[in-house]
Design goal:
Blueprint lengths: L2 E8 L6 E6 L4 E5 L5 H16 L7 H11 L6 H22 L3 H4 L7 E7 L7 H15 L3 E5 L14 H13 L4 E5 L6 H13 L5 E2 L7 H10 L4 E3 L6 H9 L5 E2 L3 H4 L2 H14 L12 H12 L7 E4 L10 E2 L8 E3 L9 E2 L1 H6 L1 E6 L1
Parallel strand pairs: 4-5, 4-10, 5-6, 6-7, 7-8, 8-9
Antiparallel strand pairs: 1-2, 1-14, 2-3, 4-12, 11-13
Helix pairs in contact: 1-3, 5-6, 7-8, 9-11
Length: 364
C-alpha cells in the first residue's frame, strides 16, 4: 500500500480538508488547523506532499520524522498547521483500512465518554451576561465546567475595562455556585506580578486552572507564576516544537500542558506531548477552541491517552464556517461527549462541499 495522491479542499480561508489516497483504493480525510487555510493548502502542495507520496501510510511517523529534519530551516506555524491535515488524513485512512476508530490505533480505549468544559471566547460581554449564558448552557447541555476570559489578549496588564477580570471572577463563581468547575484564560495578558495578584483572586474563588497568565514565549515568566501560586497553571497551546514542550514540562513551568493538535502538527506529534506529560505526572488538556474536526481529533486523544483525563475544551461560540462540510460531529449531553466506534474519525464529507471547493492536488 502506497500513498498516491494528497488533495486539499477549501471554500474560504478558515480551514482546508485533506484527502489522502493509496494505490489500493483506500482513502482518508483530515483537516488543517483552522485559519490561514490557503497558506496551509499551498504548503502541502509545494513542500509537504512530496515527502509522503509513494510512502506506506503505516510508516507515517517515520515519514514525519524525515520531513521534520529535512525542513528545519522553515519551521513555523503554517508548516505544522499544514502537516496536521496530512497526518490526520492518514490516521483516518488507517482506521478505515482496519475497521477501527483512530483511538484504538493510538493506544486503545481508556474512556469513551469524555467530560468537557464549555469554553467562552468572549471579552465583549458583561460578567452578568456571561454568567447568564453559562447557566443556560448548564441547564441545556449539563456542563459541569466552564472557562471564562480575563485580561486582554497579550495585553500587557490591560483589561477590557478597569477591574473587569476581578468582577467576572467573582460574579461567575457567585452565580454558578461551588459545584461548577471554573477555569480562567488570560491569553498572555499579564506581567508576572499582575498575574500573581490575579491568580490569588482566582484561588480565593476556588477556580480550577489559570491559563496562559503571561505571553506564551515568556516560558520563564509563566514558570515564576506557577511557583508563586497554588492554582494549577496551564499553557502550551501556542507551542509547536516538541523540544519546547520538553523544556516546559521538565522545568516544572506548568501544572497542565495544553498542546493544540492543529498547531503542533497532528495526532502523531500531539501524542508525544501527552506521553511527556504522563511520564512527568501532569495532566495534558489539549487546546481545542474551534468547532471543526479538530474537536474529533482531540476527543480521540482524550479517549486513548492516560494523561488526557481532565475536562476537555469545547467551544460554546456559534460559528457557521464548518457547516455543510461534514456530518458526524458529536454533541454535548450531560456535560460529556460520547465517541462512536465508527472506523477512522467517523465523519462523512458532504459531496456538495467537494464539488464547489477550491482544490489542490499532488499525485505520485
Amino acid at each position: 500500500m502506497k500513498i498516491t495522491s494528497i488533495e486539499t479542499f477549501r471554500r474560504d480561508d478558515n480551514m482546508a480538508l485533506v484527502r489522502v489516497r493509496t494505490d489500493d483504493g483506500a482513502e482518508g480525510w483530515g483537516q488543517t488547523s483552522p485559519y490561514i487555510a490557503s497558506q496551509s493548502a499551498s504548503l502541502i502542495e509545494s513542500t509537504l506532499a512530496p515527502f509522503f507520496l509513494g510512502t506506506d501510510p503505516w510508516d507515517l511517523e517515520a515519514t514525519i520524522d524525515r520531513m521534520v529534519l529535512a525542513v528545519y530551516k522553515t519551521y513555523g506555524t503554517t508548516l505544522w498547521r499544514a502537516l496536521c491535515g496530512i497526518d490526520t488524513a492518514v490516521w483516518d485512512l488507517l482506521g478505515k483500512v482496519t475497521g477501527q476508530p483512530v483511538y484504538r490505533l493510538i493506544g486503545g480505549k481508556l474512556r469513551d465518554r469524555i467530560p468537557v468544559y464549555g469554553s467562552s471566547m468572549r471579552r465583549d460581554i458583561s460578567p452578568e451576561q456571561e454568567a447568564d449564558r453559562l447557566l443556560a448552557l448548564r441547564e441545556s447541555n449539563g456542563f459541569g465546567a466552564f472557562k471564562i476570559r480575563i485580561a486582554d489578549v497579550m495585553g500587557r496588564d490591560t483589561d477590557v475595562y478597569a477591574g473587569r477580570s476581578e468582577d467576572i471572577i467573582r460574579v461567575t463563581r457567585e452565580r454558578l455556585g461551588e459545584n461548577v468547575v471554573l477555569h480562567a484564560d488570560a491569553n498572555g495578558g499579564y506581567s508576572v506580578s499582575r498575574a500573581i495578584r490575579v491568580g490569588r483572586v482566582l484561588e480565593e474563588y476556588n477556580f480550577g486552572h489559570f491559563e496562559e497568565p503571561c505571553p506564551y514565549p515568556q516560558i520563564e515568566n509563566t514558570a515564576r507564576v506557577a511557583a508563586a501560586l497554588d492554582i494549577p497553571i496551564a499553557a502550551g497551546e501556542q507551542d509547536q516544537l516538541l523540544e519546547h514542550f520538553h523544556r516546559i514540562i521538565n522545568s516544572g513551568g506548568v501544572d497542565i500542558i495544553q498542546p493544540d493538535i492543529g498547531y503542533v502538527g497532528g495526532i502523531s506529534r500531539a501524542r508525544k506531548v501527552t506521553t511527556m506529560a504522563e511520564v512527568a505526572g501532569i495532566p495534558a488538556t489539549p487546546h481545542c477552541a474551534n468547532q471543526s474536526m479538530l474537536q474529533l481529533f482531540t476527543l480521540h486523544l482524550a479517549a486513548s491517552q492516560p494523561a488526557v483525563h481532565q475536562f476537555q475544551e469545547w467551544s460554546i461560540e456559534p460559528v457557521t464556517w464548518h457547516e455543510g462540510i461534514y456530518r458526524g460531529l458529536p454533541e454535548v449531553v450531560d456535560g460529556h461527549v460520547t465517541l462512536s466506534d465508527a472506523p477512522g474519525w467517523g465523519v462523512e464529507i458532504e459531496a456538495d462541499f467537494l464539488s464547489k471547493a477550491t482544490k489542490t492536488s499532488s499525485v505520485f
